[in-house]
Amino acid sequence: MFRNLTPVVKNLLLITVGVYVITAFLMPQLKSIFALYYVNSSRFLPFQFLTYMFMHADFWHLFSNMFGLFIFGPLLEEFLGPKKILILWMVCGVGSGLLYSGYTSFKMHQLDNKISAFYENPSPELFSDFVKDNKHFFKSGVYDFIDAYSRNPSDSGLIQRAKENLNGIRDIQVNIPMVGASGALFGVLIAFGMLFPNTQLFLLFPPMPVKAKYLVLFYGLYTLYAILNNNPGDNVAHFAHLSGLVIGAGLVYYWKKSRKNFY
């Protein structure tokens, strides 16, 4: 099975697994340096657009991404060639980081507008709405504070505590890092679906055959649904996944202009 691995896929697997071992067991402090942070965070460094894709949150995060590369990568490398499969992986990974950073900047701008609105006109209603939108960051005791603030809306001490809460939540969100090669992997998935649309794949869960184009369509629709649903407690960077799909599709569309046969 491993003898069928193509050179670029094998090297990407070895490098990514090796980096995970180093950051998980030998030098865990490197993860906070190489993960991708919001561009206005004090922890942001430009090279993170590249390095974040070699970081992973845990073993299962690593396994899912590397398993996808292991399954779909070799055939794509044989079809596209080593140069193009490497371009696909890197461009989709870096591009996903860039687009996700733009999306994060938009979300942070919305958050800053809500905080500014409270500063301009402090009220229990605005604070309560902020808590509802960001409830996964607050502890249960915040509702006792909301009750006290609602009964004393002019209390300067309570207003100050509310401001401190808002700024604290902002600081948390500014410094949430993104890690993983999922954007790059989704580029590989869309490339496989476009180049081998009718190839039969056998799923493990549920155990059934499915054509590659339908599997990619499912992933795309689910990713779009997750973005629109905007579950506050969901820590998966779905927008990065969607970015990988879009960038990968664009690359394959550009490359396939000179080809006539697909499988």
TrEMBL record:
Q: How does it sit in the membrane?
A: Multi-pass membrane protein
- What GO CC annotations are associated with the protein? membrane
Q: Which residues cross the membrane?
A: 12-39, 59-76, 85-103, 184-205, 212-230, 236-255
Compartment list: Membrane
State the Gene Ontology terms under molecular function: serine-type endopeptidase activity
Query: Which SUPFAM superfamilies does the record match to this protein?
Result: Rhomboid-like (SSF144091)
Keywords assigned: Hydrolase, Membrane, Transmembrane, Transmembrane helix
Matching entries from Pfam families are given as: Rhomboid
InterPro entries membership: Peptidase_S54_rhomboid_dom, Rhomboid-like_sf, Rhomboid_protease_S54
Give the family from UniProt. Belongs to the peptidase S54 family.
Query: Which PANTHER family does the UniProt record give?
Result: PRESENILIN-ASSOCIATED RHOMBOID-LIKE PROTEIN, MITOCHONDRIAL, RHOMBOID PROTEASE
Protein name stated in the entry? Uncharacterized membrane protein (Homolog of Drosophila rhomboid)
Which source organism? Aquiflexum balticum DSM 16537
- Classification of source organism: Bacteria, Pseudomonadati, Bacteroidota, Cytophagia, Cytophagales
